[in-house]
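Exercise 7. Given the components listed, write out the predicted structure of the assembled complex. Treat all entries as one system.
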Amino acid sequence: SAVISQKPSRDICQRGTSLTIQCQVDSQVTMMFWYRQQPGQSLTLIATANQGSEATYESGFVIDKFPISRPNLTFSTLTVSNMSPEDSSIYLCSGCTTWGRDTQYFGPGTRLTVL
Amino acid sequence: RKEVEQDPGPFNVPEGATVAFNCTYSNSASQSFFWYRQDCRKEPKLLMSVYSSGNEDGRFTAQLNRASQYISLLIRDSKLSDSATYLCVVNHSGGGADGLTFGKGTHLIIQP
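Answer.
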């Protein structure tokens, strides 16, 4: 199975600051995504991280708030900018492989609390 | 011990076969349980809730074993379209913050 790691695993941040989450995947993963799980809710897709170009954002998410980089095939970052308490969530990196039928894997998640 | 644990697989199963996988949870106070289906680049879709008495929906059967703290999903007469990641989800907060805990998923590949 594909391996996905994230860091930090959790953080507590002050309102108005920014946090960058890093995600490392192994070479089996071809597509990378960022999800958010707000308290008591299911997973929401934020964006698809595109290698070497701008991410593709889902409705309701914008690059200024959630800048994403993917400089190479196996690494991506998500920044949560100008944070407010409403940004408190679990942020998950995810990857899909193309073997089988687009098997999807999730990272361990980053639990963010904004005070 | 992880809160919700699943065998990541992948389970490679021939079309038409029956496949079953389990999910274990650590919090004995967990109140409700679900199976979600995850397809690539999409958001998880609720497949079925899991009740203490067990429940069936077409080819899918879910069961809960509170004593051993696990839930199971059984798929009969598997179809190629069943290939996906199946997420076990546990609600253990009674409605408070962070109530839903997702497992990492079990990856199912149906082979023609």
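Discussion: Residues 91 and 98 of chain B are 9 Å apart (CA to CA). The interface with chain A takes residues 8-10, 12, 36, 38-44, 80, 83-85, 89, 93, 95-100, 102, 104-105, 107, 109-110 of chain B (CB under 8 Å).
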